[in-house]
Write a structure and sequence with these properties.
2 copies of one chain form a homodimer.
Chain A (H helix, E strand, L loop, with lengths): L10 E3 L2 E3 L4 E2 L14 E2 L3 H19 L3 H17 L2 H11 L3 H24 L5 E4 L13 E7 L3 E4 L13 H9 L3 E4 L5 H17 L7 E4 L4 H9 L5 E5 L2 H13 L6 E4 L5 E4 L1 H20 L11 E5 L2 H15 L4 E2 L3 H16 L4 E5 L8 E2 L2 E6 H6 L11 E7 L2 H10 L3 E7 L5 H14 E6 L38 E7 L20 E3 L2 E3 L1
Parallel strand pairs in A: 5-22, 7-8, 7-10, 8-9, 10-11, 12-13, 12-19, 13-18, 17-18, 19-20
Antiparallel strand pairs in A: 1-2, 3-4, 5-6, 6-21, 14-16, 15-17, 22-23
């Protein structure tokens, strides 16, 4: 499986490799050392060229039949697997993530591409609706109306640092945009440009093998905000997928809103993913909850969007037992290499600010690390009243840092929930005796989170049909969407209605009989 | 059927009637006279009260079962019919629209409410997806995941001037938002406050009869931009539906984007609805096309969002025949009362600017009117090159004004199409011989318009399942949506995933067996 590969540092403008005079290197976060080779950073010219190619590719790619598009996605998956261990090795050295984790992330990435291939074939996302003509209707005849969803146009995808495979060059945004029929221009994350290059090679190879127009995919590397801004501002870009910080996401939202023609931005930004411990559950299993919580908190050095950064519970001896168990587990949690020096620095600053806060108590710290960019876990506690009095405490500290909010009573806990911002997830631990209290909290939690978990932990996001990885602002820029799971395709589509068209000019899926096997609505009735 | 009704001029804050010291009156556009009675204009206090009631009503209304919600929509329809001729009479005097047109518009309005009632019962819009647990899956078990869409929250609806019933207080935005489970706060259009009050009475009566929380519906009247801005900025408002001018829509978009938590705005704003006349169709039926075009252009004094404001064709003797036929028909087109003095004034200014433009030729004017606010139809022509050189000519002039763009050849016509902004509709007239040319234009038209018509006219928007009344910016603020037809409900929904919840705490439609009869996906498979 393993093959020796050379990383060139080039940009991918369609099928062309491009170099610039602006060079940068990746950093090995485990050592702080710069990594070979030099990578070209894209500038305004490369943005324009990639976007022009994407726009030129759009009509032909949008018109591909479902089977062609599905096989293209599968070929990308095959090509990624074909990169062998070289991909894992490079991702490991660029991200500090363990090989075992990256092996799992690769499986998730190719599984996601194959799931979207199956979804493309399913065709339900086309939302086909046919209202046949009623020429004799009174007082007016009804025309023949046929609706399908079409792709929006070229999509700009921003690779995320924390999933160098699954949320990066061939991650969920790219897979769902390509599935929808949109060409993709990726702005690669500067922390893992070698990984990006290898994956780009897999995609570009699949583009060529399928005979698709080269502009279906480009990769632009670079570390500057200007690069991302120029990409979002390009008039040929029709939508944006982003996973990253709140500052970065809101900056892109502003640029997109101020364009002459505004475009949708799907930014997955920040969440503290509250975990609510109900009294009977605490009483019954405080120690197990404490251990489970710390395991979820410290997994992957806490670098998950769904990391449980907030625990809400009512003060009680059982909560003291939970806290003691969590403190003990955290005290033994090893430090781990964080993704980038910048993320490590921001984590350190966030933790220090909490530790120095006069109303915040440091409950426990994890083991100190040995390398230059090791993240050391941290657990804090605060009273509900003090938490409500200082909104900064509810800001995400990306990494294994979490705050326990001790509530006087159930009413206080409910009030704290009401005051929370939008979240990716909300988690409840409860027993049957707690159900009335849970039922009282659920309506508020439904307005706050995209996914609500019972007696589990929010880390671990299944890629499937019923998943929602999204949530009200500021968890994402657009709470009407998910960035994980097959429903993510809907972000890159819009409906078009064809009125009274002859079969010869209709897209094949809207012609008489062209819906065979595809879910659709005929005069409103659900049909296949 | 007819009943005598008194119009009070009050605001509807839930079930309370409110008065303020800021008074205004409607104008009879046929005469310019002020109409009785005085209407209270809402201010910041009334906005706050209505939004607080809407937020308080949201959890209970969102949780109503489908049958309750469907019957509520049907009761609104019944109550509107129960208002009898008094509603038509008031709408006529406030809008200048003929009684026959308003009778049809009322049928459309109540038909739309009943269609959404049926759609609520259908339940496909819930997007139910169930991925059953796989406890034995390797390497990790899969949790039980269940997805449904939930309503966004209270929706602000802005009544439109040009459909005092179908796009106003109980129009498509209100019907689809209520169908989705969202309380509605309407900002009534100041041109028809009496009509708004009567319809508000129908809705508020249905709210009370159904025993729903009073905040499910409020009506705030007023003419100021500040009122609309305060409503969109209110933190309890979760989405906005608007039909009106580009200036008004973009102002609301800005306010919504600058909120601490931005919200979606569905603004249907401006379109010139290009009509493309293919050479063989022109040759075969130039005279009939000219007459049909003028009939569509002048229908309702041109005050439709889908009014054909632009015709594109290749210069030829047949185009001269079309132009002559259109000029002759237009010359006999009577003027009509426009909706408001302001709309009449803006129409006059737009027409005068075109008439005075050095590159624009006035082809024909309609008959002059007799009243103070009669709109006189106008048809202009310009060369493609001059059209492309002056973007102002492509701006909508609301009313019966249209521009014919004469293209040198097919390539010029295609280039003009490429340069168009987003549109609600695009129309093609063609014969079988023209089909290759049409096929070449369709990919571009699909990126420009929400609805594409063959051999018809864009005025007349069917309310059905396959309709799209939307389109890329600036036709609307969000080309991913439609404001007419059952798909409009999707604007006011977002997905929520429930992970590993016991049946007892799941919403009924997600419980085991709770999907009976509802379209859903079980492990991805489409099922009922």
């Amino acid at each position: 499986m393993e093959r020796r590969v050379t990383i060139t540092g080039d940009l991918f403008i369609g099928q062309s490799r491009a170099r610039t005079s602006r060079l940068f290197r990746a950093v090995d976060p485990a050592t702080g050392d710069l990594l070979e080779p030099d990578f070209s950073a894209a500038g305004a010219d490369e943005v324009k060229r990639a976007c022009a190619l994407a726009a030129a590719a759009f009509p032909a790619y949008a018109a591909t039949d479902l089977e062609t598009r599905a096989r293209f996605l599968e070929a990308i998956a095959d090509n990624i697997m074909g990169l062998g261990d070289a991909l894992l090795d490079r991702a490991h050295i660029e991200s500090g993530l363990p090989i075992a984790r990256l092996t799992g992330e690769r499986a998730r990435t190719v599984g996601q591409l194959r799931l979207f291939a199956a979804e493309v074939r399913d065709g339900g996302w086309l939302s086909i609706r046919i209202d046949p003509a009623m020429p004799d209707r009174q007082p007016l005849p009804r025309p023949d109306l046929r609706l399908r969803k079409v792709p929006l146009g070229p999509v700009a995808v921003f690779g995320a640092s924390n999933f160098p495979l699954a949320f990066s060059v061939a991650g969920g945004d790219t897979a769902s945009a390509l599935a929808a029929g949109c060409p993709v221009v990726v702005k690669g994350h500067p922390a893992h440009p070698g990984t990006s290059e290898l994956v780009a090679r897999a995609i570009a190879g699949a583009v060529a093998a399928a005979g698709l127009p080269e502009g279906v995919f480009s990769l632009l590397n670079g570390a500057s905000n200007e690069l991302g801004g120029a990409l979002v501002a390009d008039p040929r870009i029709a939508a944006v997928g982003f996973t990253g910080s709140r500052g970065g996401g809101t900056a892109l939202m502003r640029i997109a809103a101020e364009r002459p023609a505004p475009i949708p931005v799907y930014a997955e930004m920040s969440a503290i993913n509250p975990v609510l411990l109900m009294p009977h559950a605490l009483e019954a299993r405080a120690e197990a909850l404490g251990a489970g919580y710390v395991a979820s908190l410290t997994m992957g050095v806490g670098q998950f969007c769904t990391n449980p950064g907030l625990v809400l519970a009512i003060d009680s001896p059982a909560l003291d037992r939970f806290t003691a168990a969590a403190a003990e587990a955290l005290g033994q949690a090893p430090a781990g290499v964080m993704l980038t020096p910048g993320i490590h620095q921001a984590f350190g600053q966030g933790v220090e600010a909490l530790a120095a806060h006069p109303r915040v108590t440091t409950v426990a710290r994890g083991l100190a690390g040995e390398g230059p960019h090791h993240g050391r876990a941290a657990l804090f506690s605060i009273s509900a009243e003090d938490f409500e009095g200082d909104h900064d405490i509810a800001q995400e500290v990306f990494g294994a840092s979490s705050v326990l909010v001790r509530c006087r009573d159930a009413a206080t806990l409910a009030r704290v929930v009401e005051g929370l911002e939008g979240q990716l997830t909300a988690t409840l631990h409860f027993t049957a005796e707690d159900e009335p209290m849970v039922a009282g909290l659920l309506p508020a939690l439904e307005t706050k989170a995209g996914r609500i978990l019972a007696n589990g932990w929010p880390t671990g996001v299944e890629v499937s049909h019923a998943m929602v990885h999204g949530g009200p602002y500021p968890a994402t820029s657009d709470g009407r969407s998910t960035s994980v799971g097959t429903l993510a395709i809907d972000r890159f589509l819009r409906p078009v209605c064809y009125q009274d068209f002859p079969d010869s000019l209709l897209p094949p899926v809207l012609r008489d009989g062209g819906q065979a096997g595809l879910p659709h609505r005929l005069d409103g009735k659900h049909t296949r």
